[in-house]
Structures are given as C-alpha cells and as structure tokens.
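Input structure tokens:
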C-alpha cells in the first residue's frame, strides 16, 4: 500500500513536470535572459528548485525505505497509522508557518535590527502555536489511535515520541526560514545536506531499529542542521544579545 502511494506520488510529479517543463527550461539556459535582475531571478529559481526537490525526496524517503525493508504487514499498518497522525499535526504546524511567512518574507528588505525584531516575533508566535498543537495532540492521541483500532493503542509510546521530536524541530524552524528568504543558495546547500544525512541515517537505522529508526532518522538530521543554523543566526543578528527573558519581555511589551 505504501509503495502504491509512493508510485502514485511519483506519477503525479512526472505529469506536473511534463506540464510545466516549457516554463522551467529558462532556469538552466544561459543567455535567454539578458538583464541582471532576471539573471538573479533565474539563479533564485534554480536554488529554489534544488531546495524543494531535496526536501520532497527526504520527506518521502523514510516511507519508501520502510516499505522496502519491513515485510511484516502489521508493522507497516502501524507505521502508516502513526505517519497519518504525525502528518496531520505537521499540516497544522505548516498552516501556522504559512501565516508567519508574511512576516518572514520581509527579512530580505529590512536592516539587521528590524530582522531581529521580526525573527523574535515569528519565533514567539511559532513556539506558542506549536506548544498548543502539541498538547492537543498529546491529550487526544489515545482517542485518535483507537480510531484506527484497539490494537493500535500499543503505539502510544512511539506516537508520543514522534509528536514530541516534531514539535521541537518545529519550534526551531524559523532559524531555517532566515536563510530560506535571505540566502537561497546557502538554503539549497543546507537542503542537500539534509537529504544526504537523512538518506544515510535512515538507511542505517531502519534495518536495525525498524519503526523507531524511521522516526529518529527522519528528524535527527533536520534537528542537527537547525542547531547549526540557529547558532549562525544568533551570531549574525545578535538575537540574544541581552538575556533571553529580557528580550522576550521587551517584545511582549512592545507588541
């Protein structure tokens, strides 16, 4: 079932690429656009395509590898149920970040002090929204698991673990958004690194640890990259030049 789902996704991607290929060819062809600004657009589009392609591959690699490595149908059904629930909460988090993206888009047009204020604001609302979604999911996870069947209640521990690590990663996500909106080339390299680390870790962990390995290998590479981007962002924008409590209190007062 998982393999059929992945094949269907690949087919949709192929059809979409065939439909829009004529509009994408200018990204690779030099000399079609002559102005400097359009050349910058071409480069940005290319880095964006690499970033999004890497993200889509690493997002689906764990499901593909589980389908190939795990032969037990019961385990596959439990994995599918957990992934369905995690993806639902992921979509809720994505809608929150979609709302915040209007603020994050202003990064490239603001000075360092304004970017620091925007980033603190985005991190504050993102953290509040993520924690609320996480606690709702934690409170309701037994009821949601029982919806799939009583025997799925044994997955309570792994589902709680998956929701927790995804919430932690989501809280740190604005650090990545800084580079996504201000340095598309650097962001593309970060996405490629995420893809390579993810494929390596999943290839090692899933055959040994099964479902637990799938969820750890899925999130750990992104978490490590986010930590690195977080350190880089803090140094670049002086994010916590004052004590974190003072910065947060000042933001709340100003807001």
């Amino acid at each position: 079932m998982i393999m059929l789902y992945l094949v269907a996704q690949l087919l949709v991607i192929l059809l979409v690429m065939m439909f829009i290929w004529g509009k994408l060819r200018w990204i690779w062809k030099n000399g079609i656009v002559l102005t400097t600004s359009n050349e910058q657009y071409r480069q940005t589009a290319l880095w964006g395509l690499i970033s999004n392609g890497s993200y889509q591959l690493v997002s689906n690699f764990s499901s593909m590898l589980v389908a190939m490595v795990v032969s037990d149908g019961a385990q596959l059904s439990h994995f599918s149920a957990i992934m369905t629930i995690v993806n639902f909460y992921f979509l809720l988090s994505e809608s929150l970040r979609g709302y915040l993206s209007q603020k994050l888009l202003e990064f490239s047009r603001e000075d360092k002090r304004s970017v620091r204020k925007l980033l603190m604001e985005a991190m504050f609302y993102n953290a509040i929204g993520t924690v609320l979604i996480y606690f709702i999911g934690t409170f309701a996870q037994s009821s949601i698991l029982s919806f799939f069947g009583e025997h799925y209640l044994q997955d309570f521990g792994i589902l709680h673990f998956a929701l927790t690590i995804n919430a932690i990663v989501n809280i740190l996500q604005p650090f990545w958004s800084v580079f996504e909106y201000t340095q598309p080339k650097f962001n593309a390299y970060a996405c490629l690194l995420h893809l390579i680390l993810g494929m390596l870790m999943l290839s090692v962990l899933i055959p040994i640890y099964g479902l637990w390995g799938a969820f750890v290998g899925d999130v750990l590479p992104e978490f490590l990259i986010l930590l690195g981007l977080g350190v880089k962002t803090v140094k670049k924008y002086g994010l916590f030049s004052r004590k974190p409590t003072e910065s947060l209190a000042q933001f709340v007062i100003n807001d």
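Helices lie at 2-24, 36-69, 73-104, 112-148, 156-182, 184-209, 211-237, 244-254. The CA atoms of residues 3 and 235 lie 44 Å apart.
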